[in-house]
């Protein structure tokens, strides 16, 4: 029996079992409505953490779709299951010892070379990233491009689960971004300078004084502080 | 769709906005050109005070009550939190056998988000072997509010800025209630934290010459908000977590701590973990314990929706309070001014302050700008609530929720086409999934429960008043006073995660393991009974209850 008889309901199949849920709910809220209390398959509920990767098919269509349960609205006739974990291999490394003379991505993940350019990873990605493009850039050793193309990756692992070449795309992207951030992004000299100044004690006196001021004095300083346009 | 980057963008078959809302959008469009050139004036102190008093939820007496038991007896707290602090322990001391120790470690870290992971890395730098650390966490490693932060992190690293200017912003934004030594530590450590991030490989937004791209946040006096698109929290968390994984820091997932363990003196000596999947407990003995469980957004204080992750249920406050920790500023809750108010599927999710930092202004039903776009968060939130409920100039959604427009198309008009999609990729994706293009239409927003301003009292080293117990990140209090500024929470978990990790490591090096008892839990139960509190509720909560009413009403526990 629906809670609100006037709410339009849809039929969904959670791991094959039928439930009626109000139209317009996300997959996650629909499962909760049906009585599931999450431990696995849930995280941020906002599309950042990749914990709620979900595979579904809609009745009458042969296609398997992938998306995030917290960001996808249920449809009538949806067959769904969550994939809370992907057993993809992740290689250990020390960011300080990366060898940039060779291709560190291929060194750590030689399976990259097994890519058959089927584009399944790209079609699978709930973030709509150009996953296959960054795999190809990874094979070429273009770390910057891999870092940029993979930047919005939420590491749900759906691509790795469907890849016929068993490439852990999300781990490759992580490695590329760290290498780019540490070795290839331009240095911030003002940051280096400021850290040096702090270490030399340049601001000690000012901070000590501020931290010791009465509330009244602080209020005065605050209201009269100069604001950068 | 300008670049075609989001190939799966749901084609908007029909207008995503109903006609009642579309009518108001037309008024927003009419006034847009005129608004582009002019800024609404900032409020003066009296005006800020007035809007807070009359419209900020913290100032609503019916939402608070006095605690009847424990170290903060007599303090006002949100009802939902008071209920948890005065609940009876979920695990009865007589149910568990503490003589069999499952993990014996130097440093136990409770919480696998930003603060906890940072604490582990700095404890290692301090000389603790990774094998002698344990992170116990409720969901997966990294599933935390830290992952969700969008806008950025503050640090006074530009020439025109200084740690002193940052300090003044922190303390003024916090209504001068902050502990000065903590605000000072936050400002002072910030540039060093960013340098550490650069060494880890964090990809901050930079100009071609390497200088950081920085923006204003609400209540900042300098442009010191550093970002990684609008995935700043995710970029930091995944780098920090990656480092911990490379160092083989042991992490027990789906195994939250449910109670601290103490010796006869009340010193914290370990914790009891609970495997949520197999429902068994584990006993951990540790020389130091770091509390890093994050905040309380999922308590839905005053029935607000929240931006927080599923596990933000105040478990750390509950455990530490029973062990005797003092809580600060718990009467102060941060409602982020701009949570999504439409469509229904994403109500409460965060629309980062970076959107306002990039030039979008809040606009009412008639298309009028009514508040400066970057007031401190509590003031801005109060002004939005006033517009909807004090002046009745909000826009109503089909489900009856009210909100005001955040005029996002202004951003590309001011900074060039493509800016929004590039710099605010998350928000762009969030809305286009539901057929709304934020570069063409404004977004409807209303304040959403975002952050626990207060928490467990610590000193500048991250020590709590309870021997053996340290804390870092959102679970601790005193850093932000009564209101945290944007970009200071990512900073907080880095600064105080680091400080707590270092302090916990040094205590572990100087001390042995203690006896394991639940005496403090027994004492707390007695305290509750003596205060006349009935045993109606249990805590910690661990996960919020979102099951449908129909399903719940027929739930029986048979298996």
What does it look like?
The complex is a heterodimer of chains A (229) and B (559). By secondary structure, chain A is α+β, with helices and mostly antiparallel strands. Chain A folds into 3 domains: 9-82, Ubiquitin-like (UB roll), CATH 3.10.20; 95-184, Fumarate Reductase Iron-sulfur Protein, Chain B, domain 2, CATH 1.10.1060.10; 189-222, no CATH class. Chain A contains 10 helices and 5 strands, in the order E-E-H-E-E-E-H-H-H-H-H-H-H-H-H. Chain A has helices spanning 27-33, 104-108, 120-124, 131-140, 143-149, 158-162, 169-184, 189-199, 204-211, 215-223, and strands spanning 9-14, 17-22, 53-58, 65-68, 78-82. Chain A has a 5-stranded mixed beta sheet with strand order 2-1-5-3-4, with helices on one face. In chain A, strand 3 and strand 4 form a beta hairpin. In chain A, helix 4 (131-140) runs antiparallel to helix 5 (143-149), helix 4 crosses helix 7 (169-184) and helix 5 (143-149) packs across helix 7 (169-184). Chain A is flat and about 70 Å long. The N and C termini of chain A lie far apart (59 Å). Mean pLDDT of chain A is 96; it is low at 1-5. With 559 residues, chain B is of the alpha/beta class. Chain B has 2 domains: 19-58 and 336-449, Flavocytochrome C3, Chain A, domain 1 (Alpha-Beta Complex); 88-332 and 453-510, FAD/NAD(P)-binding domain (3-Layer(bba) Sandwich). In chain B, 33% of the residues lie in helices and 16% in strands. Chain B has 17 helices and 22 strands. Chain B has helices at 19-37, 45-55, 79-85, 114-125, 145-148, 163-173, 180-200, 232-246, 315-322, 353-357, 377-390, 409-415, 419-423, 425-432, 488-510, 519-530, 549-553, and strands spanning 64-66, 76-78, 88-89, 103-110, 133-136, 153-154, 214-215, 225-226, 251-252, 257-262, 268-274, 281-291, 327-328, 333-340, 362-363, 395-396, 402-406, 443-452, 455-457, 469-471, 476-477, 538-539. In chain B, strands 4, 5, 9, 10, 11, 12 and 20 form a 7-stranded mixed beta sheet that branches. The termini of chain B are far apart. Chains A and B meet through helix 1, helix 7, helix 8, helix 9 and helix 10 of A and helix 5, helix 6, helix 7, helix 8 and helix 14 of B.
